[in-house]
Amino acid sequence: MFITLEGPEGSGKTSQLPALAEFLRGKGYDVLVTREPGGTSVGDQIREVLMNMKNVSIVPQTEILLFQAARAQHVAEILRPALDEGKIVICDRFGDSTLAYQGYGHQTDIGTLQYLIHFATGGLTPDLTLLLDIPVNQGFERKLKNDSEWNRLDAYAKAFHERVRQGYLELAREEPERWRIIDASAEKDRVQEEMRKFVLQKIAG
Ligand SMILES: Nc1ncnc2c1ncn2[C@@H]1O[C@H](COP(=O)(O)OP(=O)(O)O)[C@@H](O)[C@H]1O
Ligand SMILES: [Mg+2]
Questions:
Q1: Fewer beta carbons within 10 Å, N or C terminal of the chain?
Q2: Which residue has the CA at smallest separation from atom 17 of ligand 1?
Q3: Ligand at shortest distance from the CA of 11
Q4: Tally of structural domains, the chain
Q5: Which of 165, 172, 157, 158 is nearest to 126 (CA)?
Q6: Please, which residues have CB less than 5 A from ligand 2, an ion?
Q7: Structure confidence by residue, pLDDT tens digits, 124-145
Q8: How far is the centre of ligand 1, averaged over its atoms, from the C-alpha of 188 (Å)?
């Protein structure tokens, strides 16, 4: 089973993931946790180029292709082998981040992006995608309060991040059987509970 976490900055994806994985391990599942971009040696090098504040000259096309390059490597080296071994794979961001950020955020043609994502992933699609939805300001407040790590992508304008949030909600509406929307503005334990509930429902089929 392939599960992805999506949602705006500060929604809690990265901080909620370890507890979700531990919960599933406690139930006897073999769980692999990974993240995009990165997860492989080549991918981590691409991540550094994407996130580094000094790379202000990166244009949207470069950003899109670098993300797909990291993703192709990630699918081939990590995701496919783990899924073939029967593991539950939980990935912090995947193809939908490209659609939300580069598609809705940068207003790039969605069809073109879907084509590039398909090329990079060989058609690998999540079985379940949890959307941690949060108002843009609230997500950023959390990041500012708790986290000094501020990357190049975070620094895009507020209107960009607003389009990202609405884009995510639209993607979820278009594919309701794959997506589950969680109110990530709630307290941490409540969000974790919802995540566990939806994953168990999916496992139960
Ligand atoms: N439900 C929550 N309530 C309050 N703070 C939270 C909540 N979820 C996450 N945080 C905090 O907000 C910050 C951003 O969370 P993070 O998991 O890094 O978000 P993301 O990976 O989605 O950008 C972290 O410092 C985290 O501890
Ligand atoms: Mg994160």
A1: C
A2: 12
A3: 1
A4: 1
A5: 172
A6: 13-14
A7: 999 999 999 999 999 988 888 8
A8: 8
| DSSP character at residue 151 | -
Q: Does the structure show a pLDDT above 70 at 195?
A: yes
Measured at the CA of 61, the angle between CA 60 and CA 66, to 5 degrees, comes to 100
Q: How far apart, in Å, are the Cα atoms of 179 and each of 52, 106, 128, 169, 171?
A: 31, 23, 6, 10, 8
Query: Which CATH number do you get for residue 57?
Result: 3.40.50.300
Give 14 Cα–ligand 1 centroid separation in angstroms: 7
Q: Please give the residue range of the domain that contains residue 183.
A: 2-204
List, edge to edge, every strand of the sheet that includes 31-35. Answer: 31-35, 88-92, 2-6, 128-133, 179-183
pLDDT at 10: 93
Condensed to tens digits (0 to 9), the pLDDT of residues 29-81 reads 999 999 987 779 999 899 899 888 899 999 989 999 999 999 999 999 999 99
**Which token pair is 156?**
């895009």
Substitution candidate for ligand 1 out of 142, 146, 165 with most atoms within 8 A of CB: 142
- pLDDT reported for residue 152: 62
